[in-house]
Amino acid sequence: MAKQAPHTDTPVAVIDPMPLRAQMPALANKTYFNYGGQGPLPSASLEAITAAWTTIQELGPFSGAVWPYLEQVTTSLRQRLASWFGVSSQRVALTENVTSGCVLPLWGLPWEPGDELLIGDCEHPGVVAACRELARRQGLSLATLPVQWVRRTACSGDAAALEQAVLEQLQRCLRPRTRLVVLSHLLWNTGQVMPIAAVAERLAAHPRRPWLLVDGAQSLGSLPLADAGAANGAAAADIYGCTGHKWCCGPEGLGAVVLSERLLAEARPTLIGWRSLRNEGQAGSDFHRDGRRFEVATSCTPLMAGLTCSLRLLEAQGSAEQRLARIQHLSRQLWHGLGTLPGIQPLLTAPPPAGLVSFQLDAAQAGASGGDAARATALVKALGQRGVWIRSLDDPICLRACTHITTTEAEVELLLHCLAEILAGEASVS
Questions:
Q1: pLDDT tens for residues 57-95?
Q2: Helix-, strand-, coil-residue percentages of the chain, each rounded to 5
Q3: What's the mean pLDDT in 187-200?
Q4: pLDDT one-digit tens code per residue, 332-388
Q5: Angle subtended by helix axes 125-138 and 98-106, to nearest 10
Q6: Which runs of E-coded beta strand occur in 239-355?
Q7: What three-state secondary structure class fits 242?
Q8: Contact between residue 194 and residue 222 where contact means Cβ atoms under 8 Å apart
Q9: Which are the contacts of 148, defined by CB distance < 8 A and separation ≥ 6?
C-alpha cells in the first residue's frame, strides 16, 4: 500500500475527553491504547462498587432487607444493557465474561452428529477452543469462514461492498449440514466490522436456519448497537456475548449475553444453579423462560453497580453515534499517521470503522530483530519503556492500538513519534 498523506478532513466529534479522563487513575503518567484488552475503571465506578459492598453489609448480607436492594441493582443493569443492545430485557442474561456468555447457551442447543460449525478465521481462541471441544463431544464437523482477507481489498472501506463480499463468501461456505455460524461483530485483530444483521438475514434463508453466535467483546461500548440498521448485530444474533471491562470501562468479571427468542425456545441450560430457576426455593421448579435460565448462582452484585456507573458516565459523554464519531476521528488520525511511517503497514487499506488500529512491520525489515513476532514483541516493550502501551497479536502477526473517547489527539501524535524514533533507531543499528 502506498504511504498515505496526513489526514486533515475528519470532523472532530464534539466530546471533551478530559472530564472522564480525570476520573481514570489508570490514564495518569502513561499513554494508554489497550482499551480492547481492558478499559480503565473510573473512580466513580470504583466508589459505586465500594458503596454497594457497604450497603449490603449494613442491610445484612443474608437478610430480608437486602433482597430488594440486590434485585434493584441487578434489574437496573439488565435494563440498561438491554437499552444499549436495543432488545427487551427478557433477552439478556448477566454473565462473568464473553466466553461464558457464548459457551453456556451454545452447549445447550440440540445438536445432531454430523452438524457443521462454520467459524470465522478471525475469532478469538477462547471461543474457537470451546467450539472444537463441543464438536469432539457431539460428533460435529468444523469448517472455516474466511473473512480476514477482506482487510486487503478495496471493499474494506466501503460498508456496502464489504457486506456483499462477506455474504458471497458466506454463501460459498454454507453447506446443507451447517448448523452454526460463529463471527465477531468487530474483529479483534483486524479492526473490521462484520455485517452481522445481513449475515443473520442470509442464514434465515438457509433450509436449516443455522444459529448465529456473535462475539461482541469489542463492540459493546464502541459501536452503536441499539439502532435498527445494519450495525445492530445484538438483536439479529442468536447468541451475542459481551463483556463490561473493555470499551465500557467497567470492572472485570462481569458481562452479558443477548439471546434470541428462538434460542430461548430451543436451548436447555447447561451449567445450572438457583438463579436458573423460576422458583429458587423449589427443587422441582422449572427454569426461567427468559435469558435468566442461563444465569447460574451467586454473582458479585457490587460489580453490577460499578458497571452501571461506567455506562452512565459514557452516556453522559454523548450518544452512541457521537461516541463512535469521536473514536473514529482518533483511529483515523492514527491510521493515516501510521501510513506515513517507513517500515509500517496498516492492516486495513481504508480508515478503521471503529477504534481498533492494527499494523504490521514491513516484511523487508522483519529480520532486523529476529522475525516478525519477536520484533513486534520487542517494539511493544520499547514503547512500554516510554510509557506508551499497545499490544501485539499472533494471528495475523501485528501490533494493535485502540483509541477511545478518552484518547487525545496529542496521545496519538506521541505514539506516532515514539514509533518513528524506535524504528529509526533499528534502522541505524542494522
A1: 999 999 999 999 999 999 999 999 999 999 999 999 999
A2: 45, 15, 40
A3: 96
A4: 999 999 999 999 999 999 999 999 999 999 865 444 444 589 999 999 999 999 999
A5: 20
A6: 239-243, 255-259, 344-346
A7: strand
A8: no
A9: 121, 122, 187, 189, 190, 396
Instruction: Give the predicted TM-score (pTM) of the model.
Output: 0.94
Closest CA to 223 of 333, 319, 349, 329: 319
Q: Quick one: DSSP state of residue 5?
A: P
Residue 217's CB: how many other CB atoms inside 10 A?
27
Write the CA distances from 353 to 40, 151, 322, integer angstroms. 22, 12, 14
Helices within 189-295 (DSSP H only): 196-204, 233-236, 261-266
**Exposed/middle/buried for residue 408 (C-beta within 10 Å: 0-12, 13-18, 19+):** middle
On whether the CB atoms of residues 242 and 219 are closer than 8 A, the answer is: yes
Same fold, 18-32+319-429 and 50-315: no
**If DSSP codes are grouped into helix, strand and coil, which group holds residue 159?**
helix
Q: Which residue has the cell 520499547?
A: 382
Q: Quote the CA–CA distance of 181 and 213 in Å, as a whole number.
A: 6
Distance CA 206, CA 249 (A): 38
**List of residues 6+ apart from 245 with CB closer than 8 A:** 38, 39, 251, 252, 253, 254, 255
CB atoms within 10 A of CB 298: 8
Q: Name the architecture of domain 18-32+319-429.
A: Alpha-Beta Complex (3.90)
Give me the residue spans of the domains in the chain: 18-32+319-429, 50-315
CB 305 within 8 A of CB 49: yes
The CATH class for the domain spanning 50-315 reads alpha beta
Q: Which amino acid appears at position 300 of this protein?
A: C
Q: How many CB atoms lie within 10 A of CB 128?
A: 17
20, burial (CB in 10 Å: exposed 0-12, middle 13-18, buried 19+): buried
Alpha helix ranges (H) inside 339-388: 372-385
pLDDT tens readout for residues 299-316: 999 999 999 999 999 999
